[in-house]
């Protein structure tokens, strides 16, 4: 039986007369973990802004977690969505500890000046322990590495037990060990009992972790392909998405995409 979390119907977004996003009908089922993949300027951010209720389409209907945007209080909707982006890492006081920041997740408000209940702090402690981050609890935010900050932001997003966890390019700026550690953590979250649905946004195919089931490929505001990852994520579709000849292999549910070697003029 269908159980959609996100439903997009005949979406068109125009700004200053220019088409930013043009999508046919598309449904995300709650049991699916999705990757949204495309180059910079492909429409990924515009799509996220619609799903989060920050942007309205010029044409079409958007339903998120059973509610049609425009007929429901988006502030209430956002309480059911955990959202992490690089921009969020600058919103918090440098003097806040990791545990304090995670504890603000229930209200989704930034700043240690907000009153935190004992329940808020207990939930934060439980999350940090469950994500193997207890050692960071008392560390000041300003002393954390970029990878550690991203982990703290994800833990914070989980505080309110969201139905949907949206991760907007969380590996940006991370070195290889930090990226692998973060992806391993996200994989653990996605496969845990009672896990939220994960929506993972990236422009790097090789960041797709094993439990992602479906992929949406975007190019210049239009859909190249969408569906189960082994069907949608092909060399042909990737090559079109990135305007680059791509060779694709798979290992343990993880894609490995590389640019195809050009013919050697000296051969």
TrEMBL record:
InterPro entries: AAA+_ATPase (IPR003593), ABC_transporter-like_ATP-bd (IPR003439), ABC_transporter-like_CS (IPR017871), Metal_Ion_Import_ABC (IPR050153), P-loop_NTPase (IPR027417). PROSITE patterns: ABC_TRANSPORTER_1, ABC_TRANSPORTER_2. Pfam families: ABC_tran. The keyword Cell inner membrane does not apply. The keyword Methyltransferase does not apply. SUPFAM superfamilies: P-loop containing nucleoside triphosphate hydrolases. Residues 6-245 form the ABC transporter domain. Gene3D superfamilies: P-loop containing nucleotide triphosphate hydrolases. GO terms for molecular function: ATP binding; ATP hydrolysis activity. Keywords: ATP-binding, Nucleotide-binding, Transport. It comes from the Bacteria. Belongs to the ABC transporter superfamily. This is ABC transporter domain-containing protein. It comes from Ferroacidibacillus organovorans.
